[in-house]
Design goal:
By secondary structure, the protein is α+β, with helices and mostly antiparallel strands. The chain has 3 domains: 87 residues, no CATH class; 159 residues, no CATH class; 86 residues, no CATH class. The strands form 6 sheets. The protein has a 6-stranded mixed β-sheet. Strands 6-5-4-2-8-9 form a 6-stranded antiparallel β-sheet, with no helix packed on it. Strand 4 and strand 5 form a beta hairpin. Helix 2 packs across helix 4 and helix 3 packs antiparallel against helix 8. The chain is globular and about 65 Å long.
Length: 376
């Protein structure tokens, strides 16, 4: 009987402790889906549409929402702001999104923001950034870094109209069109987990493939971060974009550079400059009729296009008024290498081992009621 009483007391104590433990906070995130467009098409089943005062709007669906000066017009109504929610999904320009959709007029066109729970956002993001069919530990690693990036940006942009863009400017997100069970599993098995350094969420930058060695933050953005060091990565060799080549006429390059504010009249040659510790170009020289202009390689890549000059790890030769670029890697090279993560997961490494490799000195934490609690 005494043992039974002790057992009951322990069970009661455990129950009390569990009840007292703070539940996982259901963090939300605001993602800009459309910016600058003059109109969007809105649709959905069982949808509730309200104006800026929360008053329901009776409109025929599908509906075209247009910007009219500093307001919106939908059907025969004019409103300052429009919010739409559905038990299923809200359809914007043919794509389905969970959560609520908010449409507001801005200086140029309108902006469409999707507000939804952070974990649901991540499920929709996975197959936009990688494939959920990759080894599950790589899917879990992607979930953690994407969650961390979102939490950092939400804090940095507190009070702004939105926290993230749905493109490569932040993280690629296309709603719930390509969700699947493996994406959901990767998110659920890391629920609430973020990477932290000195108790704070890190800037969890990541990229497609590094081409053999990751980059340090200061070589791209001009400021150092202790957890974004350059590490060897022989794991992304299977990436289809490991090696790339682009052939571009000098006239087209000149036009693109002028569009970015770089004045080069009569571009004749492009010469490689110095290389940094990771082997990437620090700068290049543009030889024109007016002389030679030097510019950072990262700025050159931005001006010509991130999908054209896929990294700053390239060589260039000019012949017959045409430049031929040959390079390795895809992306800025800072932080986690997605293709490297795929291979490390296939080799048997856990997602936490993978994360500690690409973000040395960080710890996986779990968010509870706004507090970071060590998950180890």
């Amino acid at each position: 009987m005494r043992y039974l009483l002790v057992l009951l007391a322990v069970v009661a104590l455990l129950a009390e402790t569990v009840a007292a433990a703070p539940p996982l906070r259901r963090e939300s995130i605001r993602v800009a889906l459309v910016k600058g467009s003059e109109s969007v098409r809105l649709d959905g089943d069982g949808m509730l549409v309200t104006d800026e005062n929360g008053e329901p709007l009776r409109i025929a669906l599908p509906a075209q929402v247009r910007r009219t000066r500093d307001a919106l017009s939908v059907g025969s109504r004019t409103v300052r702001r429009l919010t739409a929610a559905s038990p299923g999904a809200v359809i914007v320009n043919g794509k389905r999104y969970r959560g609520a959709i908010e449409i507001s007029p801005v200086d140029k066109g309108l902006v469409v923001v999707n507000e939804l729970p952070l974990e649901e956002y991540l499920v929709g993001l996975i197959n936009c950034e990688i494939s959920s069919q990759w080894p599950i530990e790589s899917v879990k690693a992607q979930a953690v870094v994407a969650r961390t990036y979102a939490v950092f940006q939400k804090r940095a942009r507190a009070g702004a109209l939105y926290h993230l863009e749905s493109s490569v400017l932040d993280q690629v997100y296309d709603g719930c069109e390509i969700e699947d069970s493996r994406a959901l599993r990767g998110v659920n098995e890391t629920a609430g987990e973020i990477l932290a350094y000195n108790g704070q969420p890190i800037q969890a930058f990541y990229h497609s493939n590094c081409g053999g060695r990751t980059e340090v933050a200061e070589n791209v953005w001009g400021f150092p971060l202790p957890y974004l060091r350059s590490v060897d990565c022989a794991y992304c060799a299977t990436s289809p974009s490991l090696r790339w080549e682009q052939t571009i006429p000098l006239k087209k390059l000149e036009s693109l550079l002028k569009g970015a504010g770089v004045q080069v009249q009569g571009l004749r040659d492009i010469r490689e400059g110095k290389r940094n510790g990771s082997g990437r170009l620090s700068d290049i020289s543009l030889v024109s009729a007016r002389g030679t202009t030097s510019m950072p390689a990262v700025a050159f890549r931005k001006a010509i296009g991130y999908t054209v000059i896929k990294s700053t790890s390239f060589t260039v030769r000019v012949a017959n008024d045409t430049a031929v670029f040959a390079g390795t890697g895809y992306g800025h090279g800072v932080g986690l290498c997605q293709w490297g993560t795929r291979q490390r997961a296939a080799d048997g490494f856990s997602y936490r081992e993978i994360l500690s490799y690409y973000y040395p000195g960080t710890v996986v934490y779990k968010l509870y009621d706004g507090q970071a609690v060590n998950a180890h």
